[in-house]
Amino acid sequence: MITYLMCFALFLVGLYGAITMRNLVKIAISMSIMEFSTFLFFALLGYVEDGVAPIVNPDDPAKIYVDPLPQALVLTAIVIGLATTALMMAVIIRLYRKCGTFDIREIRNLRG
Amino acid sequence: MNPLIPLFVIIPLAAAFLIMIIGRFIRDFNKYFTSLVLLLLVCLTLWSLLKIDGGVSVYKVGGWEPDNYIPIGIYMVLDSFNIIILCIITIVGFLSAVYSISYIKRYTSENYFYSLYCLMIAGMNGVVLSGDLFNIFVFLEISVISAYALVAFGVEKNELEASFKYQVLGGIASFLILFGIGFIYWKTKTLNIADIRVAFTSGYDKKFYLFAQLLILSGFGLKAAIIPFHAWLPDAHSSAPSPISAMLSGVLIKAVGIYVIIRLFFNMFAITENIAVLITTLGTLSMVVGVFLAIGQWDIKRLLAYHSISQMGYVVMSAGAGMILIARGVKPEVASLAIAGGIFHLVNHAAFKGLLFLNAGAIEYRTGTRDLREMGGLAKSMPATSATSFVASMSISGIPPFNGFFSKLVIIIAAVMAKFYLLAALAVIVSIITLASFLKFQRYAFYDKPEYPKEPKPKEVPFPMVFSMVILSIVCLLLSLLIFPGIRETVLTPAIDILTDPLKYSNSILGI
Lengths: 112, 512
Fold this sequence. Notes:
heterodimer
């Protein structure tokens, strides 16, 4: 149970960073921390104590297997995460070229 | 097995790749090809709408048959509720694509624009059709990543900043959703929406259930810009190119936000009263706060964006009111009426808000400004824009005989019949303030001065833009027909049935 809670704590660390940081790149890093805490959570979901890799062997059927599905989900999610991080970095680089700074207080122009 | 279902995702996805490859060699291939592809999709959806007839059809990807009623493969589901959302995606998408033919000439690299546009359509169709939670997440990311890129398409300072804000908040929403999905998978060991419903009916842990519901609600609430989560919407929707604003405001927040909330909370979670009250409160809050934030705006597109928040509040509020009644188990016919009002308003909002953003784009195209104070007297020089925006303004503020009147009427009647008098009164007041705000828009943009004060004098916009605006204003008028008996029974009633009947959706997918 403690590992799951630590996962959630990592998620909250990322959320805190995304909200409080002033530097664009640091915000992007905080987003990555959130992302990887979620992936870690998924990886933990698939773990079964004393489980082996899920390859069925007809000679020895009485085995406990780990759940293979969360691993497949995590692979898909990592690919998506790569795309979002790349796009965010591209936008940050463009912003830096326009404004000459990474500080969000100096860029801020629009008001929500 | 309905072999047509995957085509809704495959066709725009293939178009996105073809545009990038062939568009390099043939000039003008991109714009006409996009419009043709979307016209094909419109025909496909309308044909499916006629054929569906209240049933639920399933496509199992890869042909994996269920084992002992437990679904194994990925399911794509077409039922009478999501066919309505598909219709608004493809119709507004087609008209925005036609509009872009002239509008997007002012930007460079048109190939990227049309390719991302097709990807966004593919993602939204996928979200709407997907029958399992993880694929909802995957398709949602496809559509929002292309939306982030399209918001930043102008690559000026404001566009980039709006896109960055949207990416941060959208990213947080995505991770909340992913966390919620993981949480549900942990307890139920399945990802199929219908199967999760069955797992929940056999008992669940209350605290876990509430936590999962809150994660999902806040994640999709951020995507749908319900009020405490709304900060990204006015910036993103006003900075994007106008056809994209029409798509974002008219379709994207519904397809990836409101639709998924309604689908999951009606068909996946068993409805509980506390979460129903929470949803109604959020809806009412966004309805009221959105319109007050809108009234002081002078930038047309920001004004329209705040109205999107307010109008989505109507939809969420009436769906939530329906949920409260279902959870209490009283007055099922009033609950159906409230949900019908919500869905009807959802469809109407797609038509008139899409049209309003296209009008704003037309004004910006000719005058180069979005500030209402610098306009005036455009009614004479841009008659088509002026007339269509009048139709849209009257629709959104609920003046008969336009569609907005009927949907707001249904919502208010349902609220009164359910004895939620406060909600009914607030709905009426918000509608009046909306009218005031749009009278301001009409007066400052089109009348007020005898003619536009600056040189050069604006002309009417080119034909493709006029075409889209006129068709959408006709759609605005025709949609009011949905409420009349005969048409209502074929379109709206089956959609309500599938939402209110607790087990119809899951049983017909699992084949029990």
